[in-house]
């Protein structure tokens, strides 16, 4: 239908976003059209702004609007602790917990033999350089507890062995987690790391 | 964090869309930023276009980019059948089934004593006028099988009683079911087995 071509194209583009499907894209677009002055126009403006200004931090790989991100620039974060994460989403998750006061290094993925992802395809060389050049005392490997995540953690640990203190996030039962919903690996890890009360 | 203010605002705005929450909004925005040239800029442009051109059809309430929508303008659709739906999403669901060849009338909601929605708050007066002025032979009430949907159907049936053939979708629509959630085959079956009221 010619008069709805742009609307159809918008639905199709929205449906390709992670977490959205055709149905939720249709509902989102209808909602946006109903509130076009209040919501659609401001959203489009904001997207234009972000498209023009968003960039990856040259140092850590975080997403921001400056060449070096606020976390890297903050003197308060110069604790000597460097937290290595796979993805910016993981960095944001760490930040929401408000417990880590150091800086980050975003790998941009994990090593994967299957997908032919090697160290040079990630920000691993930059990590090794940072450990050399910045006053890093501890590297915290906060990689996902997946096979590829743990392979990547072991590779980085090998590379940094003896040059810095290396730690990783403790594995166990998440707060509020029900055993019945956890995979065997998590339960095994939680049992092995059990603590005296 | 000042350098991520626009990004945070974008996530917050996306999270308010139906079907998206904070987590899916974060993932969608990260995805858009990664593909900012390929995806974010075109999406923003498309939203601007839709915001500037989208409007409700003055006759039926469908959403399009012209004052009178393509369905209302198409001579092929002048079958004398008028399908009354609650919402544009329901019209789209009917169109996807490709079984209905007539025209539509979008009410824009349902009567609701609880929410103080009366006939004048919907496009019910316009429906009565259309039945008078257009060569309508049959009004198909394709309202959701909810209490409010059926209350609205009965109200419209009362108003139109004796002036036109009145039918409703019957077979295939589950109790409490909403059209927009149904597969195309169910809608097709429901339309084919429509019954006189
Ligand atoms: Zn940074
Ligand atoms: Zn129309």
From TrEMBL, chains A, B:
Residues 80-174 form the Toprim domain. The keyword Repressor does not apply. GO terms for biological process: DNA recombination; DNA repair. It holds the Pfam family RecR_C. GO terms for molecular function: DNA binding; zinc ion binding. Keywords: DNA damage, DNA recombination, DNA repair, Metal-binding, Zinc, Zinc-finger. SMART domains: TOPRIM (SM00493). Belongs to the RecR family. This is Recombination protein RecR. The gene is recR.
